[in-house]
Fold this protein.
Amino acid sequence: MTTLTKELIYVGDPQCSWCWGFAPIKSRIEDMCRGRAVLTLVVGGLHADWTEPADAERKGFLRDHWQEVGERTGQPFIYDILDMEGLSYGTEASCRAAVTLRQLAGNDVALQFFTGLQRAYYAESRDVTSPDVLADIAAEFGHDRDEFAAEFAKPETGQRTIADFQFAQQLGVSGFPTVLINDGQGYAYLTMGYQPIEQLGHIVEAWLDGTLERG
């Protein structure tokens, strides 16, 4: 069995709209790396501490921002979630859900589930701050609902989630999505923020085949 010596790290938040815009590019990069590099998911905690319901001004800002992301990236957005009473934009729960799947099934599965959470939130207007909704989505991905819910609720899962937030900070990540590479030369950024596959694809391929010059 070949030991993979390269690691690609994706840092994002399920409720980051630019991360949803980046989702097709993320999938393409994962396909390129599969079997050639280790894939690692790190959740960033975009608004992990937000607990207050979003007011009308915040909802208006989100609507305008999502429209901009949708127009630039072509990703689908619907806005019904913004009409929900008591809507919180706190992202700890959705980040914890991704960490839960990573713990239960590994990074590859967690990366796919991460995109499923984004789709549920932005394209289906489902409340991914709700543990029950998160367990439903896990079940739709073929995982045992009760097992997911039990793992999600463990204090250790919350601690792992916080450790991800701290690791992202240690890496110097200040925006999402961020993609880093890690190999014999250490960590380096591929992108911090949205970029199309036309800009990133050839860089990833050069890194994978060992021809990327790192300055």
About this structure: Strands lie at 7-12, 38-43, 178-183, 186-192.
